[in-house]
Amino acid sequence: MSDPRISALQAEVPSLRLLTDPADLAHYGVDWTRRWTPAPMAVALPATIEEVQATMRWANAAGVAVVPSGGRTGLSGGAVAANGELVLSLQRMNRVVGFEPADRLLTVEAGIALEAVQEEARSHGLQYPVDFASRGSCSIGGNIATNAGGIRVVRYGNTREWVAGIRLVTATGELLDLNRGLVKNSSGYDLRHLAVASEGTLGIIVEATLRLTDPPPDTRVMLLALPSFEVLMEVFQALRARLPLEAFEFFTDRALHHVVAHGAQAPFDAAYPYYVVAEFACEGEAGEVQVLSAFEYCMEQGWVEDGVISHGDTQAAALWRLREGITESLAPHLPYKNDVSVRVSAMPGFLARTQALLASEYPQFEVVWFGHIGDGNLHINVLKPADMANADFVVECERVTRLLAETLAEYGGSISAEHGIGLVKKAYLGSTRSAAEIAVMRGIRRALDPAGILNPGKLFD
């Protein structure tokens, strides 16, 4: 520990676990963006709220910047520590604190993985319905800090809807107990919701009280092959009107190509340009009739050319793998990612405009589309050519992202649907938020972190 600040922190918090090995700094200093070289001063691994508080009191007094860290599965550079910051990882704070059956509330530490929360909920005969492919590695604290969405937003909403309380450690080491699981609480500002989607800039989320709900109904999964982009929203509206949808996801033939190359099984003998994975409640013979009727209706309209309906969990999992395996299959190609959203009603027009924009501006790149169309969220992945320098590739992609941001502003959309702003998207925040809104956000940030030590450079400078 050659840095005297590290020695000072260890002396201030003797029980705190600190890592300084270069391999650890490289591991904890980045998220999935991989666009910045990690350079944290050290990694702090507190085991208790008290250790988090003591660490923040020391950092505030010493003027040391702190980057909160969860599962680091983010895609916007929100957990990057590239300028000598102290990484504060909640990895060791991964315990279940308690369960209140009458309230259906589960309290957990922020470092617990989403999948562990889902399993704990099932052990009580309930469910925590927020879900996405990185469930095994992402943390609840990170989910809350970015208001993560996922594959079932069309039925259950985003993370925000399921957070009943948050314990937040401020930049000065104060512990705020926000809402405390209350259903009704009209006693002033709801600071709990302010902490949601704050990307670690307002405090360290150390504990969360989560709402649970009834276990999921029996469901089936349907994979549909579509002949064109234009019929996508027609299929969504038809299925939503006829089936109790749990999820509605789409992806392109290029996405399927990469997932199959990564080990998944091709679903059809023929190839089609677009695909939809839909999950829906289906109980008994009446449910079967309802499903077949909806499928046949879409076929009759010419919106669907082929399809398969799952029979059993194994087949359902295989169909979901075609959608959930996309991100992993694209990772070797170092994709530049756009995560955007508009209102569902604006989606047809926005899709047409965006498709034309990207076809015009990215003729030399492979573009892979997929997303949560049922809630207006579209993921656009631009794959880096193997012979192109990464810096040149990013410059070109950011040029087009500025055009995309202008289109989003016309449609009242957001440059970040569920991944946060972080470092990657802060240049485009003005396309989503007005100057007055950004000024208010800056003021809130200064009030909670007057020294500016919490995740500096993220969201805005």
From TrEMBL:
Top-level lineage group: Bacteria
BP GO terms, sorted: respiratory electron transport chain
A matching Pfam family: FAD_binding_4
InterPro entries: FAD-bd_oxidored_4_C, FAD-bd_PCMH, FAD-bd_PCMH-like_sf, FAD-bd_PCMH_sub1, FAD-bd_PCMH_sub2, FAD-linked_Oxase-like_C, FAD-oxidored/transferase_4, Oxid_FAD_bind_N
Coiled-coil annotated residue ranges, if any: none
Cofactor(s) it depends on: FAD
Keyword tags: FAD, Flavoprotein, Oxidoreductase
FAD-binding PCMH-type domain segment(s): 36-215
GO molecular function: FAD binding; oxidoreductase activity
Similarity comment: Belongs to the FAD-binding oxidoreductase/transferase type 4 family.
Protein name per UniProt: FAD-binding oxidoreductase
Source organism of this protein record: Luteimonas chenhongjianii
